[in-house]
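Supplementary Note 3. Input sequence used for the single-chain structure prediction.
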Amino acid sequence: MTTDVAARPRALRLPGGRADWLADPKTNLLSGLVVALALIPEAISFSIIAGVDPKVGLYASFSIAIIISLAGGRPGMISAATGAMALVVVSLVDEHGVGYLFAATILAGVLQIGFGYLGVGDLMHFIPRTVMVGFVNALAILIFLAQVPHILLNGDDADSSQFALNLAFIAIGLLVIYGLPRLTTAIPSPLVAIVMLAVGAIAFDLQLPTVGDMGDLPSTLPVPGLPDVPFNLETLQIVFPYALTLALVGLLESLLTAQLLDDLTDSDSDKNVESRGQGIANVATGFFGGMAGCAMIGQSMINHRTGGRTRLSTLASGVFLLVLILVFGDFVAQIPMGALVAVMIMVSIGTFSWGSVQPETLRSMPRTETIVMLATVVTTVLTHNLAYGVGAGVVLSAVFFVHHVGRVVNVTSVVDPDNVERLYDVSGQLFFASTTDLVHAFDYDAVQVKRVEIDLSNARIWDTSAVVALDAVVAKFAERGIHAELVGLNRHAERLHRDTSGRLGHGH
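The predicted structure, written as discrete structure tokens, is reproduced below.
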């Protein structure tokens, strides 16, 4: 008897391979549970920021987390509804309603898929290391600042005893988080802290702010459907600017988070796959009545700190979030916010790059790199927008780089024994920023010969500005009756000079 090989069922293929799913499943499942608990108040808070019902953020969080575990390029990274994305759509929801939010979310996802196929992930190579450090430090500061209202009880009319009790809960949570790993690492210490404090608050009926105070938890699954908006050009004109901003902010935050996890785990991830995965997740989320989301560095760090390394931890965070709000909603609503604040403080401390601010480091770093790092941190903290901070850091790095490279132009000269010809040797990078230094590097009036030779063998001509500058040098010598000849041009420079010389005018 023969068997048709083609008829045999194929083994289930998991995205990223079995190792991305099945390595240390217990730790990754427990990490996902910790993340899910931390996601609930965050998702509710971001919904409030956007001006929508809390269920919009919660639906988005579990939908994005589940889908990105399958479609994303970075194992162990957590994606959900975020504050950065919520801030983008505040005016859209206020002026046009929640239906337009869902439409913008879907369109943002489509744009992200397109950006992924265009290779936007490759642009991560152009973000300097100092900007990444500034990004991480700013995020750590923002995570801590976000906890301050919960530490101070948000200015409520709480008596001193309640305030003291809240601080005690946070302190106990931190003690458990940092102390338990000295005894055992079988269960993530943040999970133990959350459960222990929740049970204590419920058992003693302590009147502390809880997760339920943030907003009502949904009791039913979302029903997929089309956004309640007119499908016409006017709608597209309204949602497109918001969708484009969502797509760019979401990709920036996601790719930076992916790069950070790459560094922490000494691994590499496909940023273009991640871009497409974020897009797929947002498209699906928009149809499920959720808001746009992206990678969450805070929750990703929680996952990393509690041992989550695989796609299973990401999937578990979404599944557990769904189970927690639908099945255990009554218990979850009673978790004191102080317990989650303790977890986020741990994340803030663990995220901050303390080595970058040590006196020895600051003394050894070039001053320009320190300025770039500080500019990234300050801009991000002041605007509460990671995109602005990273943008400021990248622009400032580019300015410093151009300034530095543009000044590294060296011109030396020798005169032949017969005093008939003078040879100039030019070295350095010749482009728009170095043209002024190049033109003024020659001693035109001191030359007592009839012919000069300008050797460019050690120089690199990058653009037409360099060609114009060289033409200006030749013209200045000609004004003094001296013939100047350019030699040593490589093939690219020779072609560029031949095609553009004399056509762009002399400028210096």
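The longest strand covers residues 451-461. The two ends are 87 Å apart (CA to CA).
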